[in-house]
Amino acid sequence: MAESSQMGLAARVKSAAPTIDVLAVRTPTLPPATHTNTFLVGTGQAVLVEPATPYQDEQDLMVDWVESARGRGVEPVAILATHHHPDHIGGAVALCERLGLPLWGHAMTAERLSGIVELDRLLEDGERIELGGPTKTALTAVHTPGHAPGHLCFVDEASGIMIAGDMVASVGTIIVEPTDGDMTLYLESLRRMASLEPVALLPAHGDLIADPQAILSFYIAHRLMREGKVLGALEAHGGPARPSDLVARAYDDTPEALWPLALRSLEAHLIKLEREGRITREGDRWSP
Ligand SMILES: [Zn+2]
Fold first, then answer.
1. Dihedral pair phi/psi, residue 52, rounded to 5°
2. How far is the CA of 166 from the centre of ligand 1 (A)?
3. Rounded distance from Cα 37 to ligand 1 centre (Å)
4. Residues 6+ apart with CB under 8 A from 71
5. What is the C-alpha separation between 110 and 117, in angstroms, rounded?
6. Residue in 227, 230, 202 with CA at minimum distance from that of residue 215
């Protein structure tokens, strides 16, 4: 390993807990975020979470990171994917090959990655990955659909910290849109995360979140506030409306530049409201 790269590595790796190291790598993610956090969990047996970066220089850094851990007796047994989005699995093929590690994730992630990346083991909700070493720990997989169908969070037993993927973020916002997302499931998953009472959350984008209950309650309240505005916009519109007829009113507190993204979220809200029997749909038009 080149000395300059080792210095770069030392400056960029942070410790979130005695059992969790964090390295934020540059990824093609949603602005204002520019990086995705990757994690090395374990003090003997270990796992690498989020093979995120498609960029060669950042993959080189991740390889140096794992090799330097191996030099200290920390030996990853697998790479874990929280979900299938490109800013989370962009380095999966290269990193699995270069590090000689298998890729593990949820069955629905495997389905979405079919033809792109092959998963070597499917992890189910509640599955526990034991990691021996000087400080023994285990990671428990928690299936949290809503942002992506196969989304997994991972709770580190030794620290009580939850690796939260794209369920929450301390930089930018979480997209819940009908292709991959589901607003009903997203809210259920946020409540489930809160019920597990993690000590802290490590999101994929931004810093550690020290007060999980506060942010999870805020996220739930914020989505329900938006749902109320979507319903209000539909009622104000009167007749059958397309999502584009509602966005100006439902997102009147959001810069217009974000409305194209907001439209996708608005549709996810409409689908939830329809499912609950609170509105009806005919073709691409919705009515109160
Ligand atoms: Zn995502």
1. -80, -35
2. 5
3. 12
4. none
5. 8
6. 202
What token pair was written down for 15?
């410790």
- For residue 75, the CA-to-ligand 1 centroid distance in Å is 27
* Segment 160-193, tens digit of pLDDT: 999 999 999 998 889 999 999 999 999 999 999 9
CA of residue 227 to ligand 1 center, whole Å: 21
Cβ–Cβ under 8 Å, residues 105 and 81: yes
User: Which residue stretches of the chain are H helix?
Assistant: 3-12, 56-71, 86-89, 92-99, 107-112, 183-195, 212-237, 243-250, 259-275
Structural domains of the chain sorted by starting position, each given as residue range(s) with its CATH number in brackets: 3-210 (3.60.15.10), 222-287 (1.10.10.10)
User: What is the pLDDT, as a whole number, of residue 7?
Assistant: 65
125, 132, 111, 175: which is closest to 153 by C-alpha?
125
DSSP H or E run through 43: none
